Description:
Layout: E1 12-13, E2 24-29, E3 39-51, H1 53-56, E4 63-67, E5 79-82, E6 86-96, E7 99-104, H2 112-126
Pfam family, one: Trypsin_2
Protein name: Serine protease
Amino acid sequence: TPAHDVVLQPLRIGSIKNCRLGQNVYVIGSPYGKVNFNSLTTGVISGVDVDWSSLGAHYGWKVAFTVDSAGHPGNSGCPVFTTDGIVRGILVGGFSPVLISVMPCDLFLGDLESIRLMFTQDRYEHEETVEYQGWSGYGFKY
Length: 142
């Protein structure tokens, strides 16, 4: 109904090149797998040009930036905004709950489909199957 219609604006995506150390950021995510439980945390850009060659080289990623906003398991993949409302990157992991790594939008804007395919390929290349021996006590082999 018209009373419930909402006009959504697409997110604006920008470069980390326009940012500086100490600039305020916001992280919106759903920690710990909570469904429809979004959290908003604030922090600052605490590091740029972090070398991820050893971790992201096979994806072509060598640069990340860090923020000191709280990031918890389940927040991976959430947007990281600057105060102007522009998405500057995607949270990908952390060294602690308050030192998180962010992939800049600059790295993936040109070719999102290729990135999706890389992750799909990586999942199947590294998938392991585990064979369990024994009985569960309920007559099911696991």
